[in-house]
Design brief:
alpha/beta; Spore Coat Polysaccharide Biosynthesis Protein SpsA, Chain A; 2 domains; 5-stranded mixed barrel; two-stranded antiparallel ribbon; 10 helices; 11 strands; 34% helix
Length: 250
């Protein structure tokens, strides 16, 4: 199952899920990519009726959640309990609603750590040698142990906004898509916030500080998030150019 948390309240880009890209709300582009992945049913877990209406108008499924929920993870946990009280679905993908350039293959890859490593959670990383990203605190880096016999799949040891690890070689740009086992999501939702989580402002550190395991799959496609008006302009440029007759590819 894929759950996409979405809310209209955003300090840097209000009404972000409904921002138009190529004549469609951004949340619809993300929902459509999730459906194309074919990994299970897709629901948008939304905080406002306006998002639900847009999703249902496009033929999707939406479920309303409490607007006061503090995070996307809390939102998908609440939605899951309403959608699947019988506990039929054992794996859940948390896909951010502000990744309109995400490739469907990412949703398939993020499940691999659960299947092949047996970790509680899975996520994605992209190799980068960009010196600007190295110093940019908004570009979250993952410290991952990749075995020599499995260079695409490893265990995440830490996440940070600093340039880490030290030394020659790429850094691993973290892509904020997560897969959970059902039990891991239920456990995570009940855990208190932790010191490193608060210091780095990275929710996934809560899982590591409480002894949960996170596997990371290396990918060669980097979706970018839309957080600001400039990001939105970039997304419009990329995706509208990729439309038939636009002269580009997504």
């Amino acid at each position: 199952m894929v759950l996409i948390p979405a809310r209209l309240k955003s300090e840097r880009l209000p009404n972000k899920p409904l921002a138009s890209i190529g004549g469609e709300p951004m949340i619809i582009l993300v929902w459509r990519r999730a459906v194309e992945a074919g990994v299970g049913p897709v629901y948008v877990a939304c905080a406002e009726e306006a998002i639900a209406e847009a999703v249902e108008k496009a033929g999707g499924r939406a479920i309303l959640t409490d607007p006061a929920l503090p995070s996307g993870t809390d939102r998908i946990f609440a939605a899951l309990g309403s959608i699947d009280p019988e506990r039929r679905f054992r794996r859940v993908v948390n896909l951010q609603g502000d990744l309109p350039t995400v490739h469907p293959s990412c949703l398939r890859h993020v499940l691999e750590p659960l299947e092949r490593l047996g970790t509680d959670m899975g996520t994605l990383v992209f190799p980068t040698r960009d010196p600007r990203e190295r110093e940019d605190p908004n570009a979250v880096k993952a410290v991952v142990s990749f075995p020599e016999d499995s260079p695409e799949l490893g265990r995440a040891l830490y996440f940070t906004r600093a340039a880490c690890p030290w030394g020659e070689g790429p850094l691993w740009h973290h892509i904020g898509i997560y897969a959970f086992t059902r039990e891991a999501l239920e456990r995570f939702a009940g855990l208190p916030r932790t010191p490193l989580e608060r210091r780095e402002r990275l929710e996934q550190l809560r899982a590591l500080e409480h002894g949960m395991t996170i596997g990371a799959r290396l990918v060669d496609l980097l979706p970018f998030g839309v957080d600001t008006p400039d990001d939105l302009a970039r997304a419009r440029s990329v995706l509208e150019a990729a439309r038939p007759g636009g002269g580009g590819t997504a």
